[in-house]
Design goal:
alpha/beta, Rossmann fold, 2 domains, 7-stranded parallel sheet, 7 helices
């Protein structure tokens, strides 16, 4: 692999597991100095990435993290907003309370807005930088039975990301979105186990049902985290210097529209 990111500082939120961890590894292999953040320290006692514990749904912790980065590493060149998820119950609209909606919005939209607000002034000053928002195919193809609030928050993230690109691309900052479909991670496994338990079905059946709710997966399998990371690695590289304002749907062919 070309070391095309040597000299670049990259921050990956939610970067200790799943897609975020794969992205951190990919950018590190390309030569970037990688900083990862999450609410809790990873189980591994040793990691080659610099780790900062922070809950990005809390403004004060976001500011503290950015100040630490500025003091130790200077400004950020690459920001990958991977943090997200949902703790809302399945059961459709009637199962969601105000607290569920607020939690989904904080995790999947406001956390990205908050960290972008802290990092963008540095990028504007340098007239360069790349911001990637990790969204979800549910942002355009919602699964209302179990991910209603999450899907709405991701749809908002998509719109926000496009708006940000229109405002800041003229100032030298590229902004793009990556929307994975089903990805084989520990989080996905836990989600499928939860669905199986509440529906009294097998893991295999709920997996097939979820695939069907997305219109099927022509490739016949979930993505691997490394496959998402490869796209992100390209998008933040000089090879993608003319790419901004787009949403890449990586779902194995599920989405029925162009």
């Amino acid at each position: 692999m070309e070391k095309e990111l040597i000299g670049k500082v990259a921050l990956i939120t939610g970067g200790t597991k799943g897609i975020g961890r794969a992205i951190a590894e990919r950018l590190s292999e390309a030569g970037a100095l990688v900083i990862v953040t999450a609410r809790t320290r990873p189980i591994e006692t040793h990691t080659k990435h610099h780790f900062i514990a922070a809950d990005l749904t809390i403004a004060a912790q976001t500011d503290k993290m950015v100040n630490e980065i500025n003091e130790k590493f200077g400004s950020i060149d690459i920001l990958v907003n991977n943090m997200g998820g949902s703790t809302s119950p399945s059961g459709g609209f009637g199962a969601l309370t105000d607290a569920h909606w607020e939690n989904d919005l904080q995790l999947n939209l406001q956390s990205a807005v908050r960290i972008d607000r802290a990092i963008l002034p540095q990028m504007v000053e340098k007239k360069s930088g790349v911001i990637i928002h990790i969204s979800s195919v549910t942002g355009t193809l919602p699964v209302y039975q179990s991910l209603g609030g999450y899907a709405v928050a991701k749809a908002a993230l998509n719109n926000y990301s496009k708006s940000l690109s229109k405002e800041f691309s003229p100032k030298g900052i590229r902004v793009a979105t990556v929307s994975p479909g089903m990805v084989k991670t520990d989080t996905m496994d836990a989600y499928l186990q939860s669905l199986a338990k509440t529906s009294d079905l097998s893991i295999e059946q709920v997996t097939l049902d979820l695939m069907d709710s997305l219109g099927g997966i022509p490739l016949g399998r979930m993505a691997l985290p490394q496959e998402i990371a490869e796209l992100v690695g390209f998008l933040v590289s000089p090879k993608a210097s003319y790419i901004t304002g787009v949403n890449y749907i990586v779902d194995g062919g599920s989405n029925p529209s162009l």
